[in-house]
Amino acid sequence: MKLLLHTCCAPCLIYPLERLREKWFEVTGFFYNPNIHPLTEYQNRRQAVENFVKPNDIELIYPEYNPAEFFQAVNLKEKNGRCFACWSLRLEVTAKAAKEKGFSHFSTTLLVSPYQDQELLKKIGSDIASAEGVDFYYEDFRTGFKKAHDIARTQNIYCQKYCGCLYSELERCRQSPKR
Fold first, then answer.
1. What's the pLDDT tens digit per position in 56-75?
2. Domain total in the chain
């Protein structure tokens, strides 16, 4: 079984990759994240993923970085609507690539984050799977979040401080105490 795994960042790839391999999936990563802002943050995350996949023997596909796709999809929606639009965009592009490249399944590392809405991600993935004709693999990977981030820290893997989009960065900055 071949699975195309939407990969948001290196720390979030660690546990899902382990679990999917235990289930005998042949995993290929798909680093499609037009939401990540600014470009330097995108480059940091991409470099961290590249550094992680080399010794872990995983192929990774890097579609073109095009933030305009994200801004067009979210179109200034309120927070919940932005997240839904962003997740839908990234999973739809992943599913289409999976189908085009002959994968039997697709999934996402977003399922490891305790900060993401699992049920909504599951619904989005299932709806897109039905529309695209490729299976969405759902598993609640959140039990491995802390372990994966501990591994990332011990291996000096870049760990970001926000989900990636401009809006989450602004929210994080607004919530940080003034220095």
1. 999 999 999 999 999 999 98
2. 1
**Token pair listed for 50:** 């590249």
What CATH number has the domain bearing residue 50?
A: 3.40.50.620
Residue-number span of the structural domain to which 74 is assigned: 2-175
Enter the tokens of residue 157. 């893997």
DSSP string of 37-103, one letter each residue: -SHHHHHHHHHHHHHHHTTTT-EEE-----HHHHHHHHTT--HHHHHHHHHHHHHHHHHHHHHHTT-
8 Å CB contact between 168 and 70? no
**Sign (positive/negative) of CA torsion 68, 29, 145, 136?**
positive
Whole-model pTM: value is 0.94
Helices then strands, counting H and E runs in the chain, come out as 7, 5
pLDDT (0 to 100) of residue 102: 98
Query: What's the pLDDT tens digit per position in 120-157?
Result: 999 999 999 999 999 999 999 999 999 999 999 999 99
